[in-house]
Structure formats: structure tokens, C-alpha cells
Amino acid sequence: MNSRKNPSPKKRPVNLDLSSMQFPLPSLVSISHRVTGIILFVGLIFLLWAFDTSLSSPHGFEAVQDVLSGNALAKLVCWGLLSALGYHLVAGVRHLLMDAGYGETLEGGKRGAQIAVVCGAVIVILAGVWVW
Amino acid sequence: MSTLQVSMYRYNPETDDAPYMQEFQVDTQGRDLMVLNVIQMLKEQDSTLAYRRSCREGVCGSDGMNMNGKNGLSCVTALSEVVKNNRLVLRPLPGLPVVRDLVVDMGVFYKQYERIQPYLQNDQSTPSIERLQSPEERDKLDGLYECILCACCSTSCPSFWWNPDKFVGPAGLLQAYRFLADSRDTATTERLSGLDDPFSVFRCRGIMNCVNVCPKGLNPTRAIGKIRDMLLSNAT
């Protein structure tokens, strides 16, 4: 009688293929704010370790100084973390402003996201100039 | 170039183990049809296709779906608004269980709507005439009462995708604020205490996907901000 293959409502599929969806700029700014937060959380472990080493002895200070001035990878990590910090700061301030009621219209939200991206890009470039 | 390539999400629980995409070709004769018109033409090609529709003019809110990655009502969305490279991808509203093809189970969405008690509550004795409002008090309800519960907003919201049972979602919160803002409603304190937890309101991260898709041009993000302000000033 009943030839149903999949009668249970619990087995119903859900359309959540993120690659099929459009994400407007404000949502991308928000998710990248969170991603940079995680990057900072993990990256700070290495920075704190380097900080601790540099304070442990004059020898340690020179070792960290050498790595940061000579090693390209160390510079890249440093630049990456500075960029993440700068972007996270800008996007965070945007969230604070929105919580205070600024830029809560569709247009305002898009404008705020654009400003955050531009400011973030400027900080990324400045951080690169400073590191190298 | 009047042949439109349509890719349609198909799932029949009686015959399919998993959903798949079916390709269709539709001759639009160069007209800028509404997406719902195209779906009706697909239904003529394949009568097993299932979708919801009723008024076909953006009032009933039955035909919410994901068109080329963006939620909207297919009856009031013209092809020229969504079609790119002569291609249209139709998928059911994201995050809700699919009953069949484009038909989703809206149960969890309605449950959140029910939770915010979407009706006027007043503990004063019933007056002999209507409960009066000043024009200014009535103005506060504009942009709130127009919601048709099509679920386009809540199903575009990542916070609702991951916590549909705990986060009320933009549609429910817009209605929650509609009654919080109503001068005739006296249950403000009770309503706020029902929302005062880390999930119901505060899962909103203000990414405004809801505002971006609302077919009625409403702004749930602003309403959620207002509720947050009320929760903070009534802090317990």
C-alpha cells in the first residue's frame, strides 16, 4: 500500500547551500569582523609568546628583534595581525554605531559597510608600509 | 535570446532520496514576466512541480522563495530584477525543512510568531467606545503592521538558520515591537521579560539581510534595535 521511501518529516532536507545564496555587503562585513576576531584570538598567543621572550632577557629581546626585522614570514604574520586588528576595530565601531541607532536603514547599512571596507583597506596598506 | 534557462530545486519525498536540481527551458517571448508566471509555465511542462501561491500580487505572502540567491515573493519579482546571464535558479526558502520542491514546512517560523503573543493585551476595563489613540501614537505602528508573514526575512537570517528554536527571528521581532509600541497595549513589561534572554533578541547581529529582502520594504533591524533599547532601559 504505502510505497513511501521517506515518510518521516524529521528526515526532510533543508536548503542551506551557502554557495547558492547572495550575501549583501553588510553581511560580509559582519562575518569578516567575526573571522578577524578569531584570527586575533589565535594570533595573540604567538604575539604574547614573542612578547614574553623579549622581556625574559636582553638575549631574548635581540632574538625577537632579529626575527621581526629579518624573517619575511614573521613580517607577514605581523602585518596580517595588524591588518586583522585594524579591520576588527573599524567593523566593531560600525557595530557600536548601529547599536546606537545610526545607519539602521537599508541605504545607511550599505553605506556604513562601504566605509568600513575602505577604512579597513587603508589600515591594511598603512600596516604593510609600517612593517616593511 | 527569449529562451530562459531555469534551474529548479526538486524533491519528492515519495520517490527521491535527496533533493536535486532540474533544468528547464522556458520561452518568455522576450517579455519581462514575473517569476511566478515562469513557474506556472514550468508547471505546464512538468505537472509534478509543487509550489505555493495564492493571490499572485504580493498580498498573501505564500510564494516566498529563493531566486538567484535572494529571497523574495515570486509574484512581484520581475525577471529583469533577478535574472543574470539569462539564467534563473529557484530554490525553497533557506533553513526550513522542505516538504516537496519549493514547499517548506513553516512550523518553526509560526511557533516563534505565536511566542511573541501577536495580539493586543489590555488589562483595563473595556470602554464603551473604541480605545482611542492620538495620530502620533498611531504613527508609531507604521512600518510594523504591514508585515504579511511571508518568512523571506527570517529565512535570509543566518542567526535564524542556526537557532530557529531560540532566536525569534526578524519577522517575529518586528511583530513583537508592533505590540510593544502600541499605546493601547498594557503588557509591555510581560512582553519584554519574555524576550529578556541571550537568544530571543540578542542573537541579531545587525547584518540587515532581513531589510535587504523584505518585499514590503519594512525594517526589522530598526525594530530589533528599539526592542534592545527597551530591554536595556528596563534592565532587571
Automatic annotation (TrEMBL), chain A:
User: A GO term (biological process) for this protein?
Assistant: tricarboxylic acid cycle
Which residue ranges does UniProt annotate as crossing the membrane?
A: 31-51, 72-93, 113-131
* Any Gene Ontology CC annotation: plasma membrane
Query: How is the co-factor bound, per the entry?
Result: The heme is bound between the two transmembrane subunits.
Q: Please name the PROSITE patterns in this protein's record.
A: SDH_CYT_1, SDH_CYT_2
Provide the binding site for heme: 88
Query: Known PANTHER family for this protein?
Result: SUCCINATE DEHYDROGENASE CYTOCHROME B560 SUBUNIT, SUCCINATE DEHYDROGENASE CYTOCHROME B560 SUBUNIT, MITOCHONDRIAL
One of its Pfam families is Sdh_cyt
Protein family (similarity comment): Belongs to the cytochrome b560 family.
UniProt membrane topology term:
Multi-pass membrane protein
State the Gene Ontology terms under molecular function: electron transfer activity; metal ion binding
Alphabetical keyword list: Heme, Iron, Membrane, Metal-binding, Transmembrane, Transmembrane helix
Taxonomic lineage is: Bacteria, Pseudomonadati, Pseudomonadota, Gammaproteobacteria, Oceanospirillales
Question: Coding gene?
Answer: sdhC
Q: How does it assemble?
A: Part of an enzyme complex containing four subunits: a flavoprotein, an iron-sulfur protein, plus two membrane-anchoring proteins, SdhC and SdhD. The complex can form homotrimers.
Q: What is its main location?
A: membrane
Kindly provide the name given to this protein in its UniProt entry. Answer: Succinate dehydrogenase cytochrome b556 subunit
Cofactor list: heme
Superkingdom of source: Bacteria
Where it sits in the cell: the answer is: Membrane
